[in-house]
Specification:
Length: 459
């Protein structure tokens, strides 16, 4: 049965409006969805289908092997759909008919998704310029020889439009964040010493699937011990020893709406923080909470990263892991060796929504902040993750200790006591409101006493 997003028509109108300067210039927008593919090129087993997010945002179409053309002049919306037969229906079930695409998606016309059909359509509409996205198997320019193909403008336009979430989109994000939050609580309840990382991943998958979120938004990071310092650890196959920290970064999505959740919590596997763990955890928690409290329209996201970096640097200074003047530490980017990633990223239909970087964007070539995916001014409707972390990565820290400038800020004897500590990350999903933010993941405990009251209490 053909399904669609509730915002399809609104999104399409916003997109057409964004190309207002092209009105009357015989221009159109052309966008392709995900094609059917195999798990392995040499296999006939199909890969799990997941619609391309930009295509879904524009059309609301959740069917494979489709494309769409929107004529900017008369706003005609044409769906290009695959030619399917009885054999396909036998193996895969009934498929949408042309009238379904018109009724459900609001298409004005439905044609076969073949190169010759696209050529004929473009000729009929007298299209001279086509806005489209980059494609790995792009033959569009060769197919449409007399048409100017612009592959850069559409991406930036969609990126900026998708950055601002509508109220219905926020409601979808609330739903999936609630499901993922409940699953995180269940993982806490099932945590115990000497459990395997994949068992805790399985708990998360089970409880999200029970509520209909049968697809992960990304690969689960289920990391015990020092493995928590590997930012994208995905092996998830080791036993978590008694007394160790456990970090889980996991989020699900519904298979019919795609909006992602992205949540990280870190806690001792045995349910009781040691003093050492508590001290580091409270630094990260302070960064998480102060950034969230500081977010509102008009604030620069880069400044929020720098706030988190300062809090973490000051916390390490207070613990005598770092030494010297706080301003000198900031000036020399010492905090970037402990927070070696960006503070957070845009989130929506993709767990990493397209980064909002305008023409003035310049990468900041400093430790940590160079990986900040989004440089934007906060506006109402912007959805972001807030995920400060504090990690002890021996490879990075040995380089810092060997550096004649950085080493003077490091208490070598104290620092080496943390080489097997791992890392702590606390991640929430938030949406900017008119005067602050709405935390979508507030149901997941992150205060120490709240977590200690839950961990291991599966019965």
């Amino acid at each position: 049965m053909l399904q669609t997003s509730r915002n399809r028509s609104v999104h399409l109108k916003r997109l057409i409006k964004s190309f207002g300067d092209s009105k009357g210039k015989q221009a159109a927008i052309y966008i392709e969805g995900t094609k059917t593919s195999q798990r392995i090129p040499t296999s006939d087993v199909d890969a799990e289908f997941r619609q391309e997010s930009n295509f879904y945002w524009v059309t609301g179409c959740n069917e494979p092997d489709c494309a769409a053309l929107v004529n900017i002049d008369d706003e005609q919306f044409v769906m290009l759909t695959p030619d399917l037969d009885d054999d396909h229906a036998l193996w895969c079930g009934d498929f949408p008919l042309p009238e379904d695409y018109k009724t459900v998606l609001g298409a004005n016309k439905v044609i076969s998704n073949k190169p010759e059909s696209l050529v004929k359509l473009v000729q009929e509409l007298n299209i001279k310029k086509l806005y489209t996205l980059e494609s790995k198997n792009d033959t569009l320019q060769n197919t449409l020889k007399d048409v100017t193909v612009d592959k850069s403008t559409l991406y930036g336009t969609l990126r900026d439009l998708r950055m601002i979430k509508l109220s219905d989109e926020i409601e979808e994000m609330k739903k999936i964040c609630k499901v993922s939050a409940d699953a995180h609580i269940q993982v806490m309840r099932h945590a115990k010493p000497n459990i395997n990382e994949y068992q805790l991943e399985a708990v998360f998958r089970y409880y999200t699937s029970l509520q209909g979120a049968t697809r992960l938004a990304y690969s689960v990071i289920s990391a015990g011990d020092e493995r928590g310092a590997t930012l994208h650890y995905v092996n998830n196959n080791k036993v978590v020893k008694d007394g160790s920290l456990y970090l889980i970064d996991a989020g699900a999505e519904f298979p019919d709406s795609y909006y992602a959740s992205d949540i990280t919590r870190t806690y001792p596997i045995n349910g009781k923080f040691t003093q050492k763990q508590k001290e580091i955890y409270e630094i990260v928690l302070k960064a998480n909470k102060e950034v969230i409290a500081s977010m509102k329209p008009g604030v620069q996201w880069v400044d929020m990263h720098r706030l988190a970096d300062r809090i973490i640097t000051q916390g390490l200074l207070d613990l005598n892991i770092l030494k010297g003047d706080i301003e000198e530490l900031i000036k020399n980017h010492v905090g970037g060796y402990f927070l070696p990633h960006g503070l957070g990223h845009a989130i929506g239909l993709d767990v990493h929504d397209p980064p909002n970087r305008d023409g003035s964007f310049k990468a900041i070539n400093e430790p940590g902040i160079r990986y900040l995916r989004t440089h934007c001014e906060l506006k109402e409707g912007v959805a972001l993750t807030v995920e400060p972390g504090l990690y002890f990565v021996p490879r990075l820290l040995r380089k810092a200790l060997a550096d004649p400038v950085l080493s003077k800020f490091l208490n070598k004897e104290k620092l080496e006591q943390y080489f097997d500590f791992g890392g702590i990350r606390i991640e929430d999903d938030v949406v900017v409101t008119k005067d602050g933010v709405l935390v979508l993941t507030s149901d997941v405990p992150k205060e120490i006493d709240e977590m200690e009251a839950i961990i291991g209490k599966s019965q």
